Amino acid sequence: MAEQRPLRVAIVGSGPSGMYAAGHLLENPAGTFMQGRLIKRVNRPIEVDVLDRLPTPWGLIRGGVAPDHPDKKKMSRVYDAIAHRPGFRFIGNVNVGESVTTQELSHWYDAVIYAFGADGERRLGIPGEDLPGCSSARRFVGWYNGHPDFSHLPFDLRSQRAVIIGNGNVSMDVARILLKPVDELRRTDIAAHALEALARSQVREVVILGRRGPEDAAYNFPELEELGDLPDTAIVVEDENAARAVLACGPGSAEKMQVLKHLLATRRSGSRRIVLRFHTSPVALIGDNRVEGIRIAPTSNPDAGNEVLTTGMVLAAVGYRGRSLPGLPFDEARGVVPSQCGRVMDGPNPVSGAYVTGWIRRGPQGIIGSNKKCARDCVEALMADAESAALPRQGTLDAKTTLTKFAERTTSTTSFADWQRIDMTERAEGLRLSRPRVKLTTFNELMAMVS
User: Fold this and answer.
1) Can you state the angle between helices 169-179 and 137-144, rounded to 10 degrees?
2) What dotted CATH number matches 124-319?
3) Strand blocks (E) in 161-300
4) Cα(63)–Cα(136) distance, rounded to whole angstroms?
5) How far apart are CA 410 and CA 272, in angstroms?
6) 3-class SS at 43?
7) Ranges 265-274, 298-307, 372-381, 393-402: which has the least confidence
């Protein structure tokens, strides 16, 4: 009997959803934990190529998690263990949709899992949002995390007041980084250029605007609670009705209401301030050549937008959004690839051999761990199709030929060994400066490490 050739699977995206999918495909010998027990789900040889547009893996774990949240970054150890399993290969610096098409991937592999996240952003839809001085919080997060797409951006921190539109967890991260003592940031892996800029920052007040009330705020209570750890920083609510609701909340109310009540009672003074403005919407950004102020109004009466906050820095944290990939169906209204049980759907029909997981499947929601079950369900669908001979397996290329194809379409790909070299270099420089790592933050710096 002829030896069964490996099932060849490409995963587009090396963040949490992509790496969890790789982990489920390259299953541990004991099986996958399902229905309260370990079940052996994969009973055939599989080769997995994880592709990424960047030279480095781990997605938002490297480029999105706040630098002062090292515990969340430890998830990369799980992904590193998956990367060492037989059958795994990382191929970085591959831009699917440009240098390589989705149609080509479908021909080269038996199946393709799309796990490229939601790296777009929602717009405010108000006059002046394209003025210099206004940016998305996503770009600011990428800037201070050393993401090569954003490390060159010129964020101006000379304004004494910064305004953040939206009050989710990203807003809490951004406010905390803006006001955190630089000496504390020096102990993190924040990008060196951001550390230098924040050391010169003149920001002393951060105003966080939320359209709804405190009981409906999008942040989680742990992220709110962390604001209380900022030294010499007052936390106030500039909305009488909202403040009254917070102060009146009892032990049975939502935890984030109780946390905010505690903060208002204990963090009343400081040379720096975080101002929470609830029931408030942005109306327009004001300025000639750059942002000089923001006009705001009560959410219940947007026509009453006569109040102006003077500011030279506005960051919009109103949500991430998935972006379309040429050759894949896309739901413009929801910003996701349409799917059913992890299978990519083109109208009522599944796209043969195409699967989706993570934020590009379900939208930008959930925590890092939410991607584990999402990836498992996606892999379940893929394996069911493989077992029923529903995958288009004719013409699939072997591992060596596939790598040659990628090399023909991009100047240079990166391997997991290249990433290990980057990782060691960053850690060594970090050790020299008593920091976890000093990141390489440009494509040129990263690609210089390629063997």
Assistant:
1) 50
2) 3.50.50.60
3) 161-165, 205-209, 233-237, 272-277, 280-286, 293-298
4) 15
5) 48
6) coil
7) 298-307
Look at residue 35 in the predicted model and tell me its pLDDT.
64
CB-side neighbour CA atoms (13 Å) of 296: 22
- 248 phi and psi angles, rounded to 5 deg: -90, -5
Burial degree of 189 (CB within 10 A; 0-12, 13-18, 19+):
buried
Helix (H, G, I), strand (E, B) or coil at 391: coil
| Encoded tokens for 420 | 């290990």
CA–CA distances in Å: residue 70 to residues 126, 395, 414: 36, 44, 26
Helix (H) or strand (E) holding 320, with range, is: strand 320-321
CA angle 157, 160, 162 (to 5 degrees): 70
The CATH number of 7-119+322-414 is 3.40.50.720
Please name every residue paired with 310 in a beta bridge, in sequence order, or none if there are none.
Answer: 293
Beta carbons of 209 and 165 less than 8 angstroms apart = yes
Q: Is 307 exposed, middle or buried (0-12, 13-18, 19+ CB in 10 A)?
A: middle
Report the alpha-carbon distance of residue 79 to residue 15 in Å, rounded: 9
- Residue corresponding to tokens 């952003």: 121
* C-beta of residue 377 within 8 angstroms of C-beta of residue 342: yes
Model confidence at 2, pLDDT cuts 50, 70, 90, reads very low
Verdict on whether the full-model pTM lies above 0.90: yes
Q: Quote the CA–CA distance of 54 and 145 in Å, as a whole number.
A: 14
Question: Which amino acid appears at position 29 of this protein?
Answer: P
CB 67 within 8 A of CB 190: yes
Query: Could you tell me if 44 and 107 are in contact, meaning their C-beta atoms sit under 8 angstroms apart?
Result: no
Q: Do 73 and 366 form a contact (C-beta atoms < 8 A)?
A: no
User: How far apart (Å, rounded) are the C-alpha atoms in residues 408 and 404?
Assistant: 6
The domain locations on the chain are 7-119+322-414, 124-319
